Amino acid sequence: MTWLPFAIRCVTSLTVEGLRVRERRRPTELVTVRKAAVFLGSLSLLLALPGCAESGPAEGDDDVAACKQLLGAAGVDWVKRNSESETGVMPGFEDLNSAKDLFEKQATSWDSRSADIPSYVGSELCRIVERAGTADRSLTIRYGASILPFGHTFGDDWVVKGLNADVKLVYGKEAAGRTRYTVRIRCQVKGSAAGQKDEVPLEGVMVDTLTNADSIDEHSMYLLHSARTVLKTFECLNDPQVPAGLADGTGGEKRTSR
């Protein structure tokens, strides 16, 4: 099976304070105390677009390289093996440097004295889709500032695994039935207020509606690989260490999904 590049455009693109942002969805179960404010903020940001269709121009090599870098060679092979048709990489998403700049801006803007509710927007770094399909079937990886504190208590439908003092893995079903895998990292940014790493942690999210793989261990392994790749570019003052997989974590908070 060949991983072929091609272009599909079906993404909300807005400009906020000079930054290009794209739509992202959060499971309603994740947003508790901050739910109402984030919802209202999202309504003011997100616009509905008509359906999209495949277009001709192919994206550059950098777009393909970004997905390969985040997933690793083994992750790329895993996507190909578990996809029923040829896949391609959507072009034009942020790179690691722009994602780092956006995260740092969001982290340094946090003020412990402010009562304002943040409504951060992350950076999509990789989207793999069916070549003959639509963007609805995809595997996406995005990173950015979390609207939830590192110590947030999740609902019973979400599994939380503390891998070490700085890293948690959270996974469960979104309202649409998709499984969402999230790695949460305490990452202190230079110039940010004390306590930022706990209140505005770095968050990486993988959502997979593309492959026929349902292994939590495999999805977690490739998401954690992407986190280690991201941290090579992001400059976290506390130097968080991301394990290779669930079995390599030191243990911690756990909850079984029901």
The mean pLDDT is: 76
Roughly what fraction of the amino acids lie in strands? 15-25%
Helix fraction by DSSP (H/I, runs of at least 4): 25-40%
Which sequence of SSEs, written as H and E, runs from N to C?
Answer: EEEHEHEHEEEEEHEH
Number of strands: 11
What do these coordinates show?
This protein is α+β, with helices and mostly antiparallel strands. The chain is about 25% helix and about 25% strand. It contains five helices and eleven strands; from the N terminus they run E-E-E-H-E-H-E-H-E-E-E-E-E-H-E-H. The protein has helices at about 35-45, 60-80, 95-110, 195-200, 215-235, and strands at about 5-10, 15, 20, 55, 85-90, 125-130, 140-145, 160-165, 165-175, 180-185, 200-210. It has a seven-stranded antiparallel sheet. It has a two-stranded antiparallel sheet with strand order 1-4. Strand 6 and strand 7 (about 140-145) form a beta hairpin. Helix 2 runs antiparallel to helix 5. The chain starts with 6 loop residues before the first strand and ends in a 25-residue tail after the last helix. Mean pLDDT is about 75; it is low at about 1-60 and about 250-258.
